């Protein structure tokens, strides 16, 4: 009897040890499965973020083309005053109303705006000295490149971004160029965000944040977001815009792996381990019972 009791205890001990090994193995397999799920989610999120970046660039390219058209008219030698400029700008496509205003700023000072109504307060602004806008205006002038600045609180009300197009003209001899001013496209920020379809990310249960760095302070400047506090481990995709870089952060609202998925892995591993240990104990008990019957 004593030997049978000792054998039974050893069998149970070995069964629980094997059960523990089964639990560890099942837990590791569960972690591998979870990591694969996370990888697939990140791949899908990266594709979604890159699609968002493409929509942003495609939208901005439309405004660049409008600005180029007005620049070409100026370079062709046409004398644009407020009346002729308004007639010309009125013909430019702007069905969604994302362009809040077209502006001409010779020597950096705004002299012509379309439409005039609602934008009167912008007349006479010097882009090179206006505090918030001066940095972006000077960047455009110095680099000779399109520069997207903002979003700012506009003088005429609302929030908007400014696309600065520095216009360089040939001098009389044609041997050199000089800076003549800016063609400025004022972009309604809220309509721009709607136009690039950021609500699609919210509908797909993603948190997102579009941000950039302040070059002077290196502070993070948030341009758009659908919630204040982003979950950790967000995926970041660069977005090259005119003369700047934006960053698009994206992460599922519940995180890459939810707490419920981890609980499911642990519980499943426990169940598998307990079932394995129970089967081994019962099998060992039957073997002991058969051995006892044979001895009798």
Structure description:
With 296 residues, the protein is of the alpha+beta class. It has a domain at 63-194: Beta-Lactamase. 49% of the residues lie in helices and 24% in strands. Strands 2-1-5-4-3 form a five-stranded antiparallel sheet, with helices on both faces. A four-stranded antiparallel sheet has the order 7-6-9-8.
CATH architecture of the domain at 63-194: 2-Layer Sandwich
Strand order of the largest sheet: 2-1-5-4-3
Largest sheet: 5 strands, antiparallel
Q: End-to-end distance, in Å? A: 12 Å
Structure summary:
The chain is built from six helices and nine strands. The protein has 296 residues and is an alpha+beta fold.
Set out the fold topology:
Layout: H1 2-75, H2 82-90, E1 99-106, E2 112-114, H3 131-143, E3 147-153, E4 159-170, E5 177-188, H4 189-195, H5 199-203, E6 206-213, E7 220-225, E8 235-241, E9 244-252, H6 259-295
Antiparallel strand pairs: 1-2, 1-5, 3-4, 4-5, 6-7, 6-9, 8-9
Helix pairs in contact: 1-6
Main attributes of the structure:
9 strands, 296 residues, 5-stranded antiparallel sheet, 24% strand, 49% helix, alpha+beta
